[in-house]
Amino acid sequence: MPKLGIIIASTRPGRVGLPVAQWVDKEARKHAGFDEVDLIDLAEVALPFMDEPSHPRLGQYTHQHTRDWSARVDACDAFVFVMPEYNYGFNAELKNALDFLHREWLHKPVGLASYGGAAGGVRAAQMIKQVLTTLKMTPLLEGLAIAFVQQFLDDESVFTPNEHIEGAAKAMFDELVRHEAALRPLRTA
Fold first, then answer.
1. Residue 114 region, left (φ>0) first, then alpha (ψ -120 to 50), else beta?
2. 90-116 as b/e, with b when 16 or more CB fall inside 10 Å?
3. Domains of the chain by range and CATH?
4. Is the pLDDT of residue 1 over 90?
5. What is the Cα–Cα distance from 137 to 4, expressed in whole angstroms?
6. C-alpha 94, offset from chain centre
7. Packing angle, helices 122-134 and 92-99, rounded to 10
8. What's the predicted TM-score (pTM) here?
């Protein structure tokens, strides 16, 4: 069975992405379509702004943080990006994390769990698809767009979704499993 990486894109203090990602992680484990789930917090990964001298396509990494990031991403077969919308787009930390690598992303499906205000992060989700397809990733149609995300957080910052969000998460995990199996021959060729 595949390994799922859930990437928490936001790194700022007080971020909403952490409780949303913790819920996504719990739901992914409950789904049981993945052998292993790795909750990856970009705040903990703490990549500097792209500092490798060679193009990532070459895989000639000179820094340990890049080699560590490469190994962690390479070990995953599918991803969910838990991502905010900043000024109609996705955040710089997520773009930087994507740009550090190349081969490690190839032919892997990705579900987008976006959140924000009225639009639920859909503009950011649409914007990142161009980057993902350039990396030969497969962004799924099924995903989460959590509008007015604050309404789902309690005083302890625990995310409690409604039944529509729960249903969307299940559909996203189902499709991640299907797409991962379909893309696996491309990754192993």
1. beta
2. bbebbbebbebbbbbbebbbbbbbbbb
3. 3-188 (3.40.50.360)
4. no
5. 14
6. 9
7. 10
8. 0.97
